[in-house]
């Protein structure tokens, strides 16, 4: 089954990042189309894949992680103009039948991502 999933780990606090809003958009010649919105659960994962099925459309996508809101809710003082607020990861889905996993490792002043399994 084809799917796109994600999870968020709060590396500053050493915990899964629960309550992070994530927006998924697809980019094409006509612009940017909203596909899905999800919020991470207590395990830092979305309850369901952001995309799933026998196949999924190939192309360029963006995941927007609302990190600033999450960090503020945890009591982190980000100041008036946070270094990181919304983290946008642009990636390609080349195979309509593959599983894609895009995790985010998050702290107030840095992040990392990779294609997971």
TrEMBL record:
GO biological process: purine nucleobase metabolic process
Gene Ontology MF term list: hydroxyisourate hydrolase activity
Chain coiled-coil ranges: none
Binding site for substrate: 7, 45, 114
Domain of life: Bacteria
Catalytic activity: 5-hydroxyisourate + H2O = 5-hydroxy-2-oxo-4-ureido-2,5-dihydro-1H-imidazole-5-carboxylate + H(+)
PROSITE patterns the record matches: TRANSTHYRETIN_1, TRANSTHYRETIN_2
SUPFAM superfamilies: Transthyretin (synonym: prealbumin) (SSF49472)
Keyword presence, Secreted: no
Annotated ranges, domain Transthyretin/hydroxyisourate hydrolase: 4-116
Enzyme Commission number: 3.5.2.17
Keywords tagged on the record: Hydrolase, Purine metabolism
Keyword Lyase carried by entry: no
Family matches, as NCBIfam families: hdxy_isourate (TIGR02962)
Quaternary structure note: Homotetramer.
Functional description taken from the UniProt entry: Catalyzes the hydrolysis of 5-hydroxyisourate (HIU) to 2-oxo-4-hydroxy-4-carboxy-5-ureidoimidazoline (OHCU).
Family indicated by similarity: Belongs to the transthyretin family. 5-hydroxyisourate hydrolase subfamily.
Listed name of the protein: 5-hydroxyisourate hydrolase
Organism: Luteitalea pratensis
Lineage: Bacteria, Pseudomonadati, Acidobacteriota, Vicinamibacteria, Vicinamibacterales
């Amino acid at each position: 089954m084809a799917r796109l999933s994600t999870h968020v780990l709060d590396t500053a606090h050493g915990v899964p990042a629960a309550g992070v809003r994530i927006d998924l958009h697809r980019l094409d010649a006509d612009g940017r189309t909203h596909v899905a919105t999800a919020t991470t659960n207590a395990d830092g994962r979305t309850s369901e894949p952001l995309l799933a099925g026998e196949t999924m459309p190939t192309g360029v996508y963006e995941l927007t992680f609302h990190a600033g809101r999450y960090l503020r809710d945890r009591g982190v003082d980000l100041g008036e103009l946070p270094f990181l607020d919304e983290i946008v990861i642009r990636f390609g889905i080349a195979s309509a039948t593959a599983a894609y996993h895009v995790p985010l490792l998050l702290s107030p002043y840095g992040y990392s991502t990779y294609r997971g399994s």
